[in-house]
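USER:
Before I trust my own judgement here, I would like a peer's view. Write it directly below this note and I will take it from there.

ASSISTANT:
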Amino acid sequence: MPKHVVTIKDTHRGLLYEDGVLKRVLEAGSYEVRPPSRWLRRPLVEIDLIDMRERELTIKGQEILTADKVAIRVSIVVRFRVIDPRAARHEVEDHEARLYSDVQLAARRSLASMVLEDILTNRNRLSQDILSEVKESAASYGVNIIRANVKDLVFPGNLQEIMNRVLSAQRLAEAQRIEASAKAEVERIQAEARAAAQKIQTESDADNQQRLAVATAEAQRIRVGSEISDLREREKAAGAWQQHPALMRLMELETLRQLSTNANARIYVRFEPPDEERGSD
């Protein structure tokens, strides 16, 4: 019986089944397949071809409600390739249909967590979210996601009004934040200035009090010292007068001489009566 030859291109791999049981994965090349025989019992041989090339999958027109309640329609392009032919055929019924569903759900979850401004200014986030969420799952059924990009974004007709409201709310929130921050900064500076002034005043009062106490103590010391010195001088003079009575007489005469130079001075002299007259009284 003639043999049937199956050629597998380098872009594909083949899954060789015998009586429905997977025997091995066939690389690129030509393989002979014997047809069933009427006389001999041979296993039924089948070869299932799996495309290994990079391919593109488009998820079209998905209407999704964003975190700020704006309904948009988004189309996503996913580039992928099969890296495990056995898993791609055996782990899921249709790996392309499963990939479509996984990417669709990941895109919905990602966009639903984003506000409109984030979607407009950072489309890369959607790609990153899809890759991080779906990559591991897709690998379990033999598919590697190369990248996922936003192809189209369709916004509602009243987008300008929505954007104006969003921007107005953002500006108001930013202005309030700046005002609150400035007010808090002014209050902080004023509190620091008051504390510094209070500290300076307290230190000044304490310094003045200390200086006043020192000056008072010094004046008291000088006054006491002067009084002590004066007492000592008087004590010395008294001792000299006691030892030399003539000094007292000389001082009296000097005092009379000074008084005599003053025309307004008056001198009162008391004369004691004789002893006999004091006795007769």
